[in-house]
Amino acid sequence: VEQVKRIVNKEENIDIMLGSTLMNIFSNILTSPDSDLLESSSEALKTIDELAFKIDLSSTSHVNITTRNLALGVSSLSPETNEISNFSIGLPSNNESYFQMDFESGQIDPLASVILPPNLLENLSQEDSVLVK
Fold first, then answer.
1. Does residue 96 lie in a domain region?
2. Which range of residues forms the domain containing residue 119?
3. pLDDT tens-digit readout, 90-133
4. How far apart (Å, rounded) are the C-alpha atoms in residues 18 and 20?
5. How does the protein's chain sit in the membrane according to the entry (predicted)?
């Protein structure tokens, strides 16, 4: 976990390829014995959170990175957007081995889903609006 954390902290923007590689490493870490995970889980979650903030969305509005044990979805939001944003995640279907993530219509029977209202960012200060990507 420490080596991956160093990579994430060093990079300012993380492209999809590097993000996928790092998520695969975390997925493999999740197969470790529970005693090992207990010691590193807090740092791993913080590092994955930081990774999500650093994913480069300049060429796309959202990114799905799914692995056998872990899924990460990152979507850009704009204070000017007046649309409902939603995403969901479901179990694999048709013998696929990874989680299924949807940023559009949602899953038929999702494990989890989030719906963000269109006015979510309307009261942001100009200073805070710059931070939203």
1. yes
2. 77-133
3. 776 666 666 777 777 666 777 878 888 878 878 888 888 777 75
4. 5
5. Multi-pass membrane protein
